Amino acid sequence: MPVFKAPFNGYSVKFSPFYENQLAVATAQNFGILGNGRVHVLQLGPAITERASFDTADGVYDLCWSESHDSLIVAAVADGSLKIYDLSLPPASNPIRSLHEHARECHGVDFNTVRKDSFLSASWDDTVKLWTVDRPASVRTFKEHAYCVYSAAWNPRHADVFASASGDCTARIWDVREPGSTMILPAHEFEILSCDWNKYDDCIIATASVDKSIKVWDVRNYRVPVAVLNGHGYAVRKVKFSPHRGSLMASCSYDMTVCLWDYMVEDALIGRYDHHTEFAVGVDMSVFVDGLLASTGWDELVYVWQHGTDPRAP
Amino acid sequence: MAMRELVSGGAACAVPGSSSSSNPLGALANALIGSSSKTQERLREIPTATATTSDGNLYAGVEEPFASLPGSELEHTLRPNMQGSEFLQGFRSVDQGRFSDAWDEIQRPQVPHYQGRDGLTNFPLEQPLPQQNFDGPPQRVLSNFLHSFLHSSQGGIPFRPTSLPVLGLSEGDKQCIRDRSSIMARHLFADKSEEFIHGQVNALLSSLDIDNDIRARGPIPGRYPELEEYWNESQGMKPGPLGADGWISEFTQHRAAPDDPNMWVQSFERQHGANGWASEFEHEQSQLASIDQMRGSSMPNLAAMEQTRLLAHTLAQNNDPKFQNSKFLQFVSKMSRGEMTIEDNQFKPVALSAPGDWATEYDQQYGGGQSWADQFANEQLSHGPHGWANEFAAEREQHGVAEDEWANEFSKLNVNDWSEEFERQVADGTLGDASADNWANAYDEYLNEQAVLKQKSETSRGLYEFSDLNPYVGHPNPLKEGQELFRKGLLSEAVLALEAEVLKNPENSEGWRLLGIAHAENDDDQQAIAAMMRAQEVDPTNLEVLLALGVSHTNELEQAAALKYLYSWLRHHPKYGTITPPDQPENLYYADVARIFNDAAKLSPDDADVHIVLGVLYNLSREYDKAIEAFQTALKLKPRDYSLWNKLGATQANSVQSADAILAYQQALDLKPNYVRAWANMGISYANQGMYEDSIRYYVRALAMNPKADNAWQYLRISLSCASRNDMLEACDSRNLDILQKEFPL
């Protein structure tokens, strides 16, 4: 599969939930430490072509597609703002929204796949905020974590339930109808950088940590993890459950690899891709094509490939 | 559809009476938006869902109406809601059926209809400006700095920082760099102590000249942060164990260079002296105090931060070749070793750490050090004269899509321009065969000189880049013409005339010098330095040239080079030559040079030049108050020196006094209305104060006078986006000054 070279360091990559050949990439200059950012919208084909791009005043750490409008993208910007871009509008009218409430860097965004009208932002100001595209201000702020929140992920079944992963070494489960978190999961001894829900079992959640491991938990019985997946050599930056197979997960790490796991089998590590030459920080799986993966990293490259093939193969 | 309807459900809401205030969300909407119809009009609608029913739609329920968000009332009235605990029970219960029933029940109540689009009216939100101001010097310099650093490690692309008079990272930028680096470093060095991470980050920051006066985003709390601070404080009073580590890496790295190791010890003593650390500490303390006043907030624990000026080199311990080749890790490790001051294409080690028992540590860790030495040797190899050519080819392959970046990369090299010009002119036949040959020769010459420069490690920057199609070529007396144009303030024209002069008489030092000054005033330090260096080659003792080179290198943040030229200035000065030591030491230290200049100032307090140099020196050490004082003294002696007013303004801008800076720039412009650099600096100062509209006007004015000021174009672009003038970005990108001038008259 082809490769896309971005001018800045890659931070996140997401397949469109509407079109199998569309992909959005979040990038940041200078490894996200200082500088500008850019959102690229890419078209997959024989070659990867850029459909649109949007510049930001600070690095873009994450993005997500709207689940209700095929042309909307929400970007998490390092200046603490969330920008909403509409691909159907000319660049001059974008972003259509700039939501600036977080006091620190926004590090994660996730669109609700059930109710499809709202999204979450996770920020280094230790909070998670709930937003809808229609409102100029956040609907709620969830402030319980004691350190940076790196990601928040909606439960794929329950419109009001989400999980958050934080540097305070806990993952928390929240219900937006509740005043506080409903469950605190002291999942790792070290910072937790990412979490995701199983798409087939609404009680299974995976957490990825600086301790190099991924742990799978059942929220009904969270005393011991369902599985502990070791194999990455450095902090695991993102974990993502497969939309096609219940026990399949993809992860990427500061060890520059992308790994595929099946937490139900004994030898859980079922694939390792070594194609990035810098930290691999973004990974996603296509909802349309079983086994189609996308990854990006600080080597400024975006790879799209089928599981089992070499990402670098022309 | 307006927000009220979305919130309350509006007329289409399935819940009877929900549009009244009996609906808590409706009440909320009333409270929030009142009855102002104006507010509603201004709300912008998101495009409808109809566009989303594509064949690829996985979710059948796209058209399903938006439910009003449960839980939103919690944001305002945090009433304990017992009903919510159902969720918890649901999770804990084994009975999945009950769980889902509970969910359905909660889901059911309110089902307002999503009405679809009623016109794309105005966007309701005031677009918040980016919190950090990445306008102006910090972002650009840093970016170039980081990138040229990375590239210099792999292929020997000449270092080309931006041509800004001064660099001042704002407090916000510093905080931002520090916080982000700290947070990221913790991901990487999870199994290391917090001190270690501080050490890494501080090394990185101090090499970027970011002082330790800002409290970083702290470590993960819950691990007794108070104790940790106490520990840090106690550690701050004496050199920590990591100090030794830093020494080793520097020591071994230094060994790799063919120098006498003993010199290292001497240099350490020279730089640190007995009280060096203490005075630095005091300096930091006073800085901290002033920041405290500025922010009105407490900034504790300076001692703790100070002790973390310690270095380490764990990354070398990972023997994975992939890691060793990682640009980012090379970057971090180099910075952590304080190698960030690349001068004259050599790594100049900067002793940062506190004295420690480095000798024993060195013995213990010699193995690790060796790999650094190897790496260093490899890098030296890759700096060979052909490095850039490979780089060029490689980059060319990779950059198929990102053409603009590609162009940027190579405009740094100037190769692109040269070859393009060459091709175009040959194709156009605008030049005769002979001149085409000249171009080819010049190009070859360029390559040769480039190689020579590399071998000599003489300089990291490129050669002087001539304009094409110079109407003054063939002029009988281009020097006189150039001087005349320069006097009139027609800088870009003067540049052309002077270029013609030095093409005709390459040995004319005065021609090169004037050319350099014209470029400097035209806000192009790169060319200014190139020209000044040619002037110095021809006449190595010209005082004005030496001073100008010192200033330009200060602008480019190249301390060692700046010190070299400023010191030479003093040595060759008829009045002060006697107070300098007879032989120039191999390595100059800031403290020595500053001391000699202070002596010179005492010797003749009425010599404005000495005060100017002192001001420049204090800029190097970031003692801006002293620098401002020095420039003000010089201005009393030379009140009509416009470039001096500009220097004062730039220094004031650096010490976060942008408002004062604007007054100083105004003085400079009153004296010399065509002073492009002052116009651009004025823009930067406005941008730093968040007055983007004003900054745009000044940038446009500067560009109208010198459309080749690439940096000003970049600042303009940033200011345009910060001012939400995206409509003008295209004009900026296409460099359409007509449109911009019409839109932003000054």
UniProtKB/TrEMBL annotation, chain A:
Its main location: cytoplasm. It is found in: Cytoplasm, Cytosol; Peroxisome matrix. SUPFAM superfamilies: WD40 repeat-like (SSF50978). WD repeats lie at residues 99-141, 142-184, 185-227, 229-262. Pfam families: Beta-prop_EIPR1, WD40. InterPro entries: Beta-prop_EIPR1-like (IPR059104), PEX7 (IPR044536), WD40/YVTN_repeat-like_dom_sf (IPR015943), WD40_PAC1 (IPR020472), WD40_repeat_CS (IPR019775), WD40_repeat_dom_sf (IPR036322), WD40_rpt (IPR001680). Keywords: Cytoplasm, Peroxisome, Protein transport, Repeat, Transport, WD repeat. One of its GO terms (molecular function) is peroxisome matrix targeting signal-2 binding. It comes from the Eukaryota. Residues 147-261 form the EIPR1-like beta-propeller domain. One of its GO terms (cellular component) is cytosol. One of its GO terms (biological process) is protein import into peroxisome matrix. Receptor required for the peroxisomal import of proteins containing a C-terminal PTS2-type peroxisomal targeting signal. Specifically binds to cargo proteins containing a PTS2 peroxisomal targeting signal in the cytosol. Cargo protein-binding triggers interaction with PEX5 and formation of a ternary complex composed of PEX5 and PEX7 along with PTS2-containing cargo proteins, which is tranlocated into peroxisomes by passing through the PEX13-PEX14 docking complex. Belongs to the WD repeat peroxin-7 family. PANTHER family: PEROXISOMAL TARGETING SIGNAL 2 RECEPTOR. This is Peroxin-7. It comes from Sesamum alatum.
TrEMBL record, chain B:
SUPFAM superfamilies: TPR-like (SSF48452). Coiled coil: none annotated. It comes from the Eukaryota. Keywords: Cytoplasm, Peroxisome, Repeat, TPR repeat. One of its GO terms (biological process) is protein import into peroxisome matrix, docking. TPR repeats lie at residues 509-542, 608-641, 642-675, 676-709. Signal peptide: none annotated. It is found in: Cytoplasm; Peroxisome. GO terms for molecular function: peroxisome matrix targeting signal-1 binding. InterPro entries: PEX5/PEX5L, TPR-like_helical_dom_sf, TPR_rpt. One of its GO terms (cellular component) is cytosol. Belongs to the peroxisomal targeting signal receptor family. This is Peroxisome biogenesis protein 5.
